[in-house]
Amino acid sequence: MSLSNRGQTLLLVLLVAGLLSGMLMFSAGFIKWTQVKNHTESLCRRHYLKAQSYVVKYAKRIKKLNPKATKLRFRLGVLYAKLALMKDPVSISATLWQIKKVKSKQKLLHAKQKGLIEMARYKIALEVSELKKELVQKHTITPLKLSDVHFNMEAKPINSTAPTYHLPPQFYKTQTASASWTWMDFDFFKGFFNFSCSVGVKKKGLKWKPALKKDSPLLSYL
To answer: φ, ψ for residue 140 (rounded to 5)?
Structure first.
Protein backbone atom coordinates (compact mmCIF):
# COMPACT_ATOMS: atom_id res chain seq x y z
CA MET A 1 0.00 0.00 0.00
CA SER A 2 1.44 3.35 -1.00
CA LEU A 3 2.01 6.14 1.48
CA SER A 4 -0.80 8.08 -0.18
CA ASN A 5 -3.29 5.25 0.32
CA ARG A 6 -2.13 4.73 3.89
CA GLY A 7 -2.65 8.38 4.61
CA GLN A 8 -6.15 8.32 3.16
CA THR A 9 -7.00 5.20 5.15
CA LEU A 10 -5.69 6.77 8.36
CA LEU A 11 -7.65 9.93 7.68
CA LEU A 12 -10.81 7.90 7.08
CA VAL A 13 -10.28 5.97 10.32
CA LEU A 14 -9.80 9.22 12.22
CA LEU A 15 -12.93 10.70 10.68
CA VAL A 16 -15.00 7.62 11.55
CA ALA A 17 -13.56 7.57 15.07
CA GLY A 18 -14.36 11.25 15.49
CA LEU A 19 -17.87 10.71 14.17
CA LEU A 20 -18.46 7.77 16.50
CA SER A 21 -17.06 9.73 19.43
CA GLY A 22 -19.36 12.64 18.60
CA MET A 23 -22.35 10.32 18.33
CA LEU A 24 -21.50 8.71 21.67
CA MET A 25 -21.13 12.12 23.31
CA PHE A 26 -24.45 13.26 21.84
CA SER A 27 -26.17 10.05 22.95
CA ALA A 28 -24.77 10.37 26.46
CA GLY A 29 -25.83 14.01 26.58
CA PHE A 30 -29.30 13.22 25.30
CA ILE A 31 -29.71 10.45 27.87
CA LYS A 32 -28.60 12.82 30.62
CA TRP A 33 -30.97 15.53 29.38
CA THR A 34 -33.86 13.04 29.26
CA GLN A 35 -33.13 11.83 32.78
CA VAL A 36 -32.97 15.36 34.19
CA LYS A 37 -36.09 16.43 32.29
CA ASN A 38 -38.13 13.43 33.39
CA HIS A 39 -36.96 13.55 36.99
CA THR A 40 -37.38 17.29 37.55
CA GLU A 41 -40.77 17.40 35.86
CA SER A 42 -41.84 14.35 37.86
CA LEU A 43 -40.80 16.08 41.09
CA CYS A 44 -42.70 19.21 40.11
CA ARG A 45 -45.86 17.37 39.17
CA ARG A 46 -45.79 15.10 42.20
CA HIS A 47 -45.43 17.91 44.75
CA TYR A 48 -47.84 20.27 43.00
CA LEU A 49 -50.43 17.52 42.59
CA LYS A 50 -50.07 16.70 46.28
CA ALA A 51 -50.47 20.36 47.20
CA GLN A 52 -53.57 20.67 45.01
CA SER A 53 -54.97 17.49 46.55
CA TYR A 54 -54.78 19.23 49.94
CA VAL A 55 -56.72 22.16 48.48
CA VAL A 56 -59.49 19.83 47.31
CA LYS A 57 -59.46 17.70 50.46
CA TYR A 58 -59.63 20.55 52.97
CA ALA A 59 -62.08 22.62 50.95
CA LYS A 60 -64.40 19.62 51.02
CA ARG A 61 -63.99 19.18 54.79
CA ILE A 62 -64.64 22.86 55.45
CA LYS A 63 -67.71 22.92 53.22
CA LYS A 64 -69.11 19.95 55.14
CA LEU A 65 -69.36 22.26 58.16
CA ASN A 66 -71.56 24.75 56.27
CA PRO A 67 -74.92 23.12 57.18
CA LYS A 68 -74.05 23.34 60.87
CA ALA A 69 -72.95 26.97 60.50
CA THR A 70 -76.20 27.82 58.69
CA LYS A 71 -78.28 26.03 61.29
CA LEU A 72 -76.61 27.89 64.18
CA ARG A 73 -76.98 31.24 62.43
CA PHE A 74 -80.67 30.55 61.75
CA ARG A 75 -81.18 29.46 65.35
CA LEU A 76 -79.56 32.66 66.60
CA GLY A 77 -81.78 34.78 64.36
CA VAL A 78 -84.89 33.06 65.68
CA LEU A 79 -83.84 33.62 69.29
CA TYR A 80 -83.15 37.31 68.70
CA ALA A 81 -86.54 37.67 67.01
CA LYS A 82 -88.25 36.07 70.01
CA LEU A 83 -86.26 38.21 72.41
CA ALA A 84 -87.47 41.38 70.72
CA LEU A 85 -91.08 40.43 71.49
CA MET A 86 -90.55 39.30 75.07
CA LYS A 87 -91.46 41.29 78.17
CA ASP A 88 -91.34 38.62 80.85
CA PRO A 89 -87.96 38.77 82.70
CA VAL A 90 -87.85 35.02 83.20
CA SER A 91 -88.40 34.34 79.49
CA ILE A 92 -85.87 37.01 78.57
CA SER A 93 -83.28 35.47 80.89
CA ALA A 94 -83.87 31.98 79.49
CA THR A 95 -83.61 33.24 75.90
CA LEU A 96 -80.41 35.16 76.64
CA TRP A 97 -78.95 31.96 78.06
CA GLN A 98 -79.88 30.10 74.85
CA ILE A 99 -78.32 32.88 72.77
CA LYS A 100 -75.12 32.60 74.78
CA LYS A 101 -75.13 28.84 74.25
CA VAL A 102 -75.58 29.16 70.47
CA LYS A 103 -72.78 31.76 70.27
CA SER A 104 -70.51 29.44 72.20
CA LYS A 105 -71.21 26.70 69.66
CA GLN A 106 -70.49 29.15 66.85
CA LYS A 107 -67.12 30.03 68.35
CA LEU A 108 -66.18 26.37 68.64
CA LEU A 109 -67.25 25.76 65.06
CA HIS A 110 -65.31 28.77 63.79
CA ALA A 111 -62.20 27.56 65.62
CA LYS A 112 -62.56 24.26 63.78
CA GLN A 113 -63.06 26.05 60.45
CA LYS A 114 -59.98 28.22 60.96
CA GLY A 115 -57.96 25.23 62.15
CA LEU A 116 -58.72 23.35 58.94
CA ILE A 117 -57.79 26.38 56.83
CA GLU A 118 -54.47 26.82 58.63
CA MET A 119 -53.67 23.10 58.42
CA ALA A 120 -54.36 23.12 54.67
CA ARG A 121 -52.09 26.13 54.13
CA TYR A 122 -49.33 24.56 56.20
CA LYS A 123 -49.37 21.28 54.26
CA ILE A 124 -49.54 23.09 50.93
CA ALA A 125 -46.60 25.35 51.82
CA LEU A 126 -44.62 22.30 52.95
CA GLU A 127 -45.08 20.58 49.58
CA VAL A 128 -43.91 23.67 47.65
CA SER A 129 -40.92 24.01 49.99
CA GLU A 130 -40.00 20.34 49.49
CA LEU A 131 -40.23 20.77 45.72
CA LYS A 132 -37.82 23.69 45.80
CA LYS A 133 -35.38 21.84 48.05
CA GLU A 134 -35.35 18.67 45.93
CA LEU A 135 -34.88 20.51 42.64
CA VAL A 136 -31.96 22.53 43.97
CA GLN A 137 -30.26 19.69 45.85
CA LYS A 138 -30.48 16.97 43.20
CA HIS A 139 -29.71 19.01 40.08
CA THR A 140 -27.85 22.14 39.04
CA ILE A 141 -30.98 24.25 38.86
CA THR A 142 -31.08 28.03 38.46
CA PRO A 143 -33.03 30.22 38.34
CA LEU A 144 -36.03 28.55 39.93
CA LYS A 145 -39.45 30.17 39.80
CA LEU A 146 -42.27 28.63 41.81
CA SER A 147 -45.76 30.04 42.10
CA ASP A 148 -47.63 29.44 45.33
CA VAL A 149 -50.55 27.06 45.57
CA HIS A 150 -53.32 29.21 46.99
CA PHE A 151 -55.94 28.13 49.47
CA ASN A 152 -58.62 30.79 49.67
CA MET A 153 -62.25 30.32 50.61
CA GLU A 154 -64.86 33.07 50.85
CA ALA A 155 -66.67 33.51 54.14
CA LYS A 156 -70.37 34.46 54.00
CA PRO A 157 -71.50 36.53 55.75
CA ILE A 158 -68.11 38.08 56.51
CA ASN A 159 -69.07 39.42 59.94
CA SER A 160 -70.55 36.13 61.17
CA THR A 161 -68.97 34.34 64.12
CA ALA A 162 -69.14 31.08 62.17
CA PRO A 163 -69.75 31.84 58.49
CA THR A 164 -70.24 29.37 55.68
CA TYR A 165 -67.23 28.94 53.41
CA HIS A 166 -67.33 28.73 49.62
CA LEU A 167 -64.84 28.38 46.80
CA PRO A 168 -64.11 31.73 45.08
CA PRO A 169 -65.43 32.53 41.60
CA GLN A 170 -63.26 31.23 38.74
CA PHE A 171 -61.68 28.79 41.18
CA TYR A 172 -60.31 26.57 38.42
CA LYS A 173 -58.46 29.54 36.87
CA THR A 174 -57.03 31.10 40.01
CA GLN A 175 -55.91 27.74 41.40
CA THR A 176 -53.31 26.99 38.71
CA ALA A 177 -49.73 26.84 39.99
CA SER A 178 -46.65 26.79 37.75
CA ALA A 179 -42.93 26.28 38.07
CA SER A 180 -40.05 26.89 35.70
CA TRP A 181 -36.38 26.16 36.12
CA THR A 182 -33.11 26.07 34.18
CA TRP A 183 -30.75 23.11 34.16
CA MET A 184 -27.10 23.89 33.49
CA ASP A 185 -25.26 21.16 31.59
CA PHE A 186 -21.47 21.52 31.73
CA ASP A 187 -20.61 17.96 30.65
CA PHE A 188 -22.09 17.40 27.20
CA PHE A 189 -24.02 20.18 25.49
CA LYS A 190 -22.39 23.00 27.46
CA GLY A 191 -25.61 24.94 27.70
CA PHE A 192 -28.75 25.80 29.63
CA PHE A 193 -32.08 24.03 29.28
CA ASN A 194 -35.45 25.33 30.45
CA PHE A 195 -38.18 23.08 31.84
CA SER A 196 -41.56 23.75 33.40
CA CYS A 197 -44.71 22.19 34.77
CA SER A 198 -48.15 23.46 35.64
CA VAL A 199 -50.84 21.91 37.83
CA GLY A 200 -54.36 23.09 38.57
CA VAL A 201 -57.76 21.65 39.34
CA LYS A 202 -60.69 20.53 37.24
CA LYS A 203 -64.23 19.52 37.97
CA LYS A 204 -65.45 15.99 37.35
CA GLY A 205 -69.16 15.90 37.90
CA LEU A 206 -69.69 17.61 41.25
CA LYS A 207 -66.17 17.01 42.51
CA TRP A 208 -62.94 18.95 42.09
CA LYS A 209 -59.74 17.04 41.37
CA PRO A 210 -56.07 18.00 40.89
CA ALA A 211 -55.11 18.06 37.21
CA LEU A 212 -51.98 18.53 35.12
CA LYS A 213 -51.93 21.50 32.80
CA LYS A 214 -50.24 21.65 29.41
CA ASP A 215 -46.60 22.53 29.95
CA SER A 216 -44.66 25.08 28.00
CA PRO A 217 -42.20 23.77 25.34
CA LEU A 218 -40.22 20.86 26.74
CA LEU A 219 -36.84 22.06 25.48
CA SER A 220 -35.31 25.47 25.27
CA TYR A 221 -31.58 25.67 24.64
CA LEU A 222 -29.84 28.93 25.53
So the answer is: -80, 90
154, β-bridge pairs:
166
Say how many residues make up the chain: 222
21 within domain boundaries? no
Quickly state the pLDDT bin for 179 (edges 50, 70, 90): confident
Residue 129 lies in a domain: yes
Contact predicate 177/186, CB 8 Å: no
The domain containing residue 131 runs over which residues?
Answer: 38-212
Counting the structural domains of the chain, the total is 1
Residue 146 lies in a domain: yes
Taking the whole predicted model, whether its pTM rises above 0.90 is answered as no
Could you report the per-residue pLDDT of 51-72, keeping only the tens digit for each?
Answer: 989 999 999 999 999 999 999 9
Q: Are 151 and 108 in contact (CB under 8 A)?
A: no
With beta carbons less than 8 A apart as the criterion, state whether 79 and 95 touch. Answer: yes
